[in-house]
Design goal:
The chain is mainly alpha-helical. It has one domain (12-110). The protein has helices spanning 12-26, 31-52, 56-78, 86-110. Helix 2 runs antiparallel to helix 3 and helix 3 (56-78) runs antiparallel to helix 4.
Length: 111
Amino acid sequence: MFWFNAPASVSTEVQEFLQFEKDWLYGAWDYKKLLLIFAVPVSFTALGLAFWKRSIWMGLGVVVLMATGKILWSIYNAGESGKSIIIPAIVGLIICIGLIYFGFKRIEKKK
C-alpha cells in the first residue's frame, strides 16, 4: 500500500503468495473464477444492505465472513504461502470491527 514504506525484507512465503495471486489473476478465466470474482460485489452489496438496515451484527457478520473466506481461499489454493496472510487479515479484521463498532456507537450518541 502506498502509505507504508517498502519493507527492508519480505519473507519467502509472502513473495510466493503474492506471485500466486498475480498468476491466478493473469491466468485462464473459467466459470469457477468468474463465480468467485462475482463474490466480491455480492459481499459488498450484502455489507451495504446490512448497514443500510442499520444492523451492526449483520454488518459485522458479513465482514467476518469476507475475511474468513479470503483466508480459507488463500490457504486452500496457495498452500503454505497462503498462511502468510492470516495475521495481517486478522489484524485488519479487528481494526474494521473496532471502527465499525465505534462508528455505530457514535451515531447512537448523536440520536
